[in-house]
Amino acid sequence: MFDIPTPALILAAVVGGWVVQSYLAYRQSQGFMAAVRGLRSKGRVSIGVGGRRYLGGRAYVAIAVDDHGKVADALTLSGLTTFARPRKVSVLLGAKVNQLKGDREIPGLSSQQREAARQAATLLKAAQQEGSETPTTIPT
User: What is the pTM of this model?
Assistant: First the structure.
């Protein structure tokens, strides 16, 4: 019927896979940001990222901090695939922002999640010192 060369088929498969992966990554980020928007009613929100992109994976942690400087709610997004979904991080509830900024381990968090929580707390504190309403994101 059609005589399509093998390199063209391979290229079409690679491009098709890339398009599907891009769509799934977009849907994942939209789902995480929708969950983060739900945190806004509980306090000031900051998001941090930890880990490496390829070796060991990345983790994102979003914290909502109340007027007393304690974590009112927290979410994490971690996993090796685009099928990972946001999950609550109950071990951070009630923790002070200064505790998150420190180096002490928090039982129940992976090293990537701990790094992300530290970055989120650091960004929140920096925004408070500058008088900014919304913390900025530091690219890593």
Answer: 0.80
